[in-house]
Amino acid sequence: MSFEPPIEQVKGKIREMIVGEATRVGGESTFPFHLWEGGMPNPPVVAMEVYDEPQREWPEAVRKVYEDVMDDPVAWAKKCQDEFGADAIALKLQSTDPNGTDAPPEAAAEIVKNVNSAIDIPLIIYGTGSPEKDTEVLKKIAESLPDDNILIGPVEESNHRQIGAAAMGYKKPVIAFTSMDVNLAKQLNVLLTQLGVPDDKIIIDPTTGALGYGLDYCYSIMERDRLAALAQNDGKMQMPIFNNVAPETWKAKEAKVSEEEEPTFGDVTTRGILWEAVTATSLLLCGSNVLVMRHPEAVKLVRKAIEGLQEQAKEKIAS
Amino acid sequence: MALSGLQIFKLLAKTNCKECGFPTCMAFAMQLAAGKTELDKCPYVSDEAKAALGEASAPAVRKVTVGAGDLAVTVGEETVMYRHEKRFENMPGIGVMITDEMDDAQVDGLLGQLKEQQFNYVGRTLRPRVAAVKAADGAALAALAAKVDAGSGAALVLMHDDAGVLQAAAGPLKDKKPLLYAATEANFDAVAGVANELEVPFVIKSDSFDKLAGLGQKALDGGFKEVMLDPASGSLGDVLMDQTLIRRAAIKKTLRALGFPTIGFPCNMTDDKMLEAVYAAVFVAKYAGIVILSDLEPARTLPLLYLGQNIYTDPQKPMQMEQGVYPLNEPGPESPILVTTNFSLTYFTVSSEVEASKVPAWLCIMDVEGQSVLTAWAAGKFVADAIAPFLKKSGIGEKAPHKKVVIPGYVAQISGELEEELGDGWQVQVGVREAADIPKFLRQWSAN
Ligand code: SF4
């Protein structure tokens, strides 16, 4: 019997965004890793998290990896770059949290500068999700690093004008954050582009759900995002996707509860690493372009998954 | 082969009564022809029509049951490519490879895990259910299969190239519906013969789509319904490609010859156990029916079982928590009382923030059919005259008699009314709108 492979070519293409000097994100003209029927020129980027305040409350599996650098974001970033081979650094400005230290934008900008000059890989800056404070902080950062192509976010509907304007002024790409809804994501893209932010300087943050904690929603939202962009050729959805994997997965009880407390759950370190790696791998399959991760072993596994997914015996379907 | 929509229509009642959920019999017939609905949705199908429609009415991916009893696994019956289009029906069975090269202790350990390992997730029990059994010859396979069956009750996959060996092992266990692995181009007739005689399901295997579809057609022509496919994927990329093309051929091209669920062996793809779990995740997310691992370490099976549940949960029916009072961080009589809805995501975000705060608290989860706070409020379900009786019946008043309850910030407007409904000296406090602000709120909360 001769089998005619049901190949599907799509009309749409994800825009290619440049972060840092020349790191390309997105650009695929097919569904995630469907290399047998389309192109995916830039494999997904694995960024690693760095915080500007020590995270001593973290589960032990990740705390002990960073214990020696927790008080120094520069050393932390270098460790991720040099020891763990991160593709990018995602610097989380915890110190600016209005419910925490509430550090002023100037102080945050100083930290960003120091981290930026210490690394050669692209830098991503992520605020605390407080719309007012993020506006001040991200504006200041854009201003004080006018020549560096750093990716900044989150930009929400409520502060898109202010951050959008700063990003345009200093040519910074932005992370457009909406909460788990295809239409809201599109609406924010429309608002940002109407403001004048170029299409290829926006990446979608659809809200990441961890395994067991909303992954099902996130997975389907992202599948629908990619269907809209690729199959329906919707230009306002053709931005790459950004997933903040680490904070969600390491919050999950199953990733951190000790074996003493839950004897049937097995080794806690293995479990934590896999919670992050399995969540990230699932997100690769529904269209992630940038994964922000924490545990170096999970990073290694996800890299191997990215490599493995690109190995396809296309001759199997050649006729 | 499959009937066309028109051919099916001719066999229906043609009353357009709509009970099937479609506006007309014709619409139903078209959907049925495309494998997107099931014949039993129409209560008015005659027996003759049923027989005639048997083939056409099977779902695009056929249903296969492996095993019998508590650990039986039913897979297939799938009708869509993407879960949001409707839902994925049958979660993959997760299992383990057991061979005659393992020593007794190893085998016993695995049987113990098959028997006992189970996890509770949002009110569901998740557990590994399958044992793939491999041995050198008929006697060894029969002995090991019998031992695995007696020791675990797992759904069995019996593995050998020789149909005679499969027959020797499967014969005594035929009532347990073991899955025979595998019929290939070389041994199809012999293995299919055993499957036919014992009335058990079997796998067809080939790394060529042409051959796989050819064998699938042969199985259909032979009247077999319970068949699974192994495309023998060589790499992780091949897993994605093979699983996607098989599912697409079945659903979009209604190619019945590939309209069967698949089985996959991440255990054979790498020696790195962590990587094996990641490979298995790709099988689980991408359509596989049975996934065989090299062991059952709970720290590795747990994420895979959760993933199966997440992917196969019905997107139209939000996952719901059971109504009740959830103690977090070991609360006492002085601890704050929070109330919110039973939408699973609401529960997850609120409970994880409360846990992160380390402040002991009582979380009262009210059944509003799985809606979020604002949706349930708008639908009149999360409102004062519903919340008050729920709180009173929940027994929270005895656990924490301070008579103060915190409501989500999004429904601040109901606080006055809720205080009235509760009466009896209750005070309603308005909490925060965003879960991220919960820790700060709780740290500042005091009962007085
Ligand atoms: S339930 Fe049966 S008879 Fe009624 S409309 Fe549907 S197909 Fe026709």
Show the helix and strand layout:
The complex is a heterodimer of chains A (319) and B (448).
Chain A: E1 16-19, E2 23-26, E3 45-51, H1 60-66, H2 73-83, E4 88-92, H3 105-118, E5 123-126, H4 131-144, E6 151-155, H5 160-169, E7 174-177, H6 182-195, E8 202-205, H7 215-231, E9 242-243, H8 245-249, H9 253-256, H10 268-285, E10 290-293, H11 296-310
Chain B: H1 5-11, H2 25-33, H3 47-57, E1 64-66, E2 73-75, E3 93-99, H4 104-116, E4 119-121, E5 124-126, E6 130-134, H5 138-152, E7 155-159, H6 163-170, E8 179-183, H7 188-198, E9 202-205, H8 209-221, E10 227-230, H9 236-252, E11 263-264, H10 273-285, E12 290-293, H11 298-312, E13 324-328, E14 337-341, H12 344-357, E15 361-366, H13 373-378, H14 384-394, H15 396-399, E16 404-407, H16 415-422, E17 427-430, H17 438-444
Parallel strand pairs in B: 3-6, 3-12, 6-7, 7-8, 8-9, 9-10, 11-12, 14-15, 16-17
Antiparallel strand pairs in B: 1-2, 4-5, 13-15
Helix pairs in contact in B: 1-2, 5-6, 6-7, 10-11, 12-17, 14-16
The structure holds iron/sulfur cluster (SF4).
Biggest interface between chains? A-B, 60 and 64 residues
**Strand runs of chain A, count:** 10
Number of distinct helices of chain A: 11
* Radius of gyration computed on alpha carbons of chain B: 27 Å
Task: Please identify the structural class of chain B as seen in this structure.
Answer: alpha/beta
Chain-averaged pLDDT of chain A: 96
Summarize the structure.
The complex is a heterodimer of chains A (319) and B (448). Chain A contains eleven helices and ten strands.
List keywords for this structure.
heterodimer, A: about 325 residues, alpha/beta, TIM Barrel, 8-stranded parallel beta sheet, two-stranded antiparallel ribbon, about 15% strand, B: about 450 residues, 3-methyladenine DNA Glycosylase II, Chain A, domain 3, Rossmann fold, 3-stranded mixed beta sheet, about 40% helix, binds iron/sulfur cluster
